[in-house]
Design goal:
Blueprint: H1 8-26, H2 41-66, H3 71-96, H4 98-110, H5 116-122, H6 134-145, H7 149-152, E1 155-156, E2 162-163, E3 167-173, E4 179-185, H8 189-197, H9 200-210, H10 216-229, H11 233-246, E5 253-254, E6 267-271, H12 278-282, H13 286-307, E7 309-311, E8 319-321, E9 327-329, E10 335-337, H14 340-356, H15 359-369, H16 380-388, E11 400-401, H17 404-415, H18 422-425, H19 432-451, E12 454-455, H20 457-464, H21 475-489
Parallel strand pairs: 5-9
Antiparallel strand pairs: 1-3, 2-3, 3-4, 4-6, 7-10, 8-9, 11-12
Helix pairs in contact: 1-2, 1-4, 2-3, 3-4, 3-5, 4-5, 9-10, 10-19, 13-19, 13-20, 14-15, 15-16, 17-19
């Protein structure tokens, strides 16, 4: 039996956890945060070290057990080892919250090459992290808003309806009878996140030895800035309000309104959204999955090209699918605002690959942008062939199904140096403006791959690309075109 490969997203998680652990051992271990489990440097370092030690011991026992086993038994032992390790990681990262938990969330859906039992275990981190108690949540709200929640609201549910890496969500009813969702930041999570972010540099410095074309400095600062912004619920409220206004009245895209008078930098109150979770849609019929995939795709690129901004955290826990056919988009803590120049670069890359198809022009463009080291010893055709993979979905008109295998191949195209483009990959770089774009693309393709969504992605894209701005190509496109026309007549902004 061949040796199972370490999935790439899982490798990133391992590298991230290792980098944080090593950096913490080098830092002063003093200081505690009182609420978040494992928020102190010492505690979080110890928990990471413990899960690593348990995994090492488990692996040693696993090797001993499989030595004299036949092929069928070895496969069963391998699955058992992978699942027990994943369960341990889920329990540890879920309780730690913060950046470490986010690494686990990313691994759960970015690489479809993960063994199914492992992906199922890690998927628990998407929306059901272990919560803090209702009493602690109430104390946090009173500190922020000056009154306990049972006085601020006509009704308050102390049991959270969702919990994630930075905060948890409670259901409530305002005194004017609006059903709302109240997101409360975990006390002490800011210290935990900042501790984790201080170690990001170690990870990317070590990656520089593997990817010589990588310029870690700007990349590190961009990642730190974006992730640190997630701690500011006031900024998230402004971002969410901007999206809600931009898509107000949309026929199939919904963003909940913010309740500003009940929101602060650590508490965010917004309209309560209802709907089915992503997992329900994955188990639905093909037409339902195709519709969901097209809506998510349109939201991504309408936001990017129309609004010059996007929520950089596209993962399954951030969508709710309503009975009325609308998709509600949640969590605007990680939003990137792009400049006109950055957007022009994105558009030019698509235009060169999908329309002009001129390798020399494309290479000159990406060298200017900073995606490829100038003068790298590869032909223009080699360069274009490598980057064309990322645009294969929109290369031609006609229905195309996005599969889990396609999503995994996209991840490998970025990280896997053992493939035919390994040497070229070492000459590539990720400029700051492309950090979130990569996150969007990887997350989007992983989600569409889980849905096995089929559509004419080229036709849909031609509606959204600013250098084409074509007419509607699908029934959803016609609905959106009608909505945009009404917005224009009413004098409302249209992205």
């Amino acid at each position: 039996m061949s040796r199972p490969r370490l999935p790439l997203a899982a490798a990133v998680v391992v590298a991230g956890v290792a980098a944080v652990a090593v950096a913490r051992r080098r830092r002063d271990r003093a200081g505690d945060a009182p609420v978040v489990t494992g928020s102190s440097t010492l505690s979080r370092n110890a928990r990471i070290g413990a899960v690593g030690a348990r995994s090492a011991g488990r692996y040693a026992a696993h090797v001993a057990r499989r030595t004299f086993a036949d092929a069928e038994r070895r496969e069963a032992l391998e699955q058992e080892f992978q699942l027990r390790t994943a369960d341990d990681v889920v329990a540890t990262l879920g309780n730690m919250k913060g950046a470490m938990m986010k690494l686990g969330q990313m691994a759960s859906y970015l690489d479809q090459g993960l063994p199914e039992p492992v992906r199922e275990a890690l998927s628990q981190l998407r929306s059901d992290a272990p919560p803090m108690s209702g009493e602690l949540a109430a104390q946090a709200i009173e500190r922020e808003l000056g009154q306990p929640p049972d006085r601020l609201f006509a009704e308050w549910d102390p049991v959270p309806i969702a919990s994630a890496s930075i905060g948890q969500v409670h259901r409530a009813l305002t005194h004017d009878e609006r059903a709302v969702a109240v997101k409360v930041q975990y006390p002490g999570i800011d210290a935990a996140i900042r501790s984790d972010l201080s170690s990001v540099g170690l990870l990317f410095t070590s990656m520089g030895a593997v990817y010589p074309g990588l310029e870690p400095g700007p990349l590190i600062e961009e990642l730190k800035s974006r992730l640190a912004e997630e701690l500011d619920y006031g900024l998230e409220a402004r971002n969410q309000a901007a999206f809600a206004d931009a898509f107000r009245g949309h026929p199939f895209i919904h963003v909940p309104d913010v309740v500003p008078e009940l929101s602060t930098d650590r508490v965010l109150t917004s309209e309560l959204a209802v709907g089915e979770p992503f997992e329900t849609i994955v188990a639905s019929d093909q037409a339902t999955r195709d519709r969901a995939g097209e809506i998510i795709y349109r939201f991504v690129f309408r936001s990017l090209y129309g609004l010059r901004m996007f929520n950089g955290d596209p993962h399954p826990g951030n969508y709710l699918f309503g009975a009325d056919g609308r998709v509600t988009f949640l969590d605007f803590g990680l939003v990137k605002h792009f400049t006109e120049g950055e957007l022009a670069d994105f558009s030019s890359m698509v235009e060169e690959v999908s329309f002009r198809r001129d390798p020399a022009r494309f290479r000159a463009l990406i060298e200017r942008i900073g995606l490829l080291r100038a003068g790298a010893p590869f032909t223009d055709d080699q360069v274009m062939s490598y980057f064309a993979h990322f645009y294969a979905l929109v290369d031609e008109r006609g229905p195309t199904t996005i599969t889990p295998e396609y999503a995994s191949a996209t991840v490998r195209q970025i990280f896997d140096q053992s493939g035919p483009d390994g040497d070229l990959l070492k000459a590539t770089n990720v400029p700051p403006s492309f950090v979130i774009i990569q996150r969007i693309n990887l997350g989007l393709y992983a989600i569409l791959g889980e849905l096995n969504a089929t559509a004419d992605w080229r036709g849909i894209s031609e509606e959204l690309w600013p250098f084409v701005a074509g007419g509607p190509n699908t029934p959803l496109g016609e609905e959106e075109a009608d909505w945009r026309a009404r917005r224009t007549r009413d004098g409302a902004p249209v992205g």
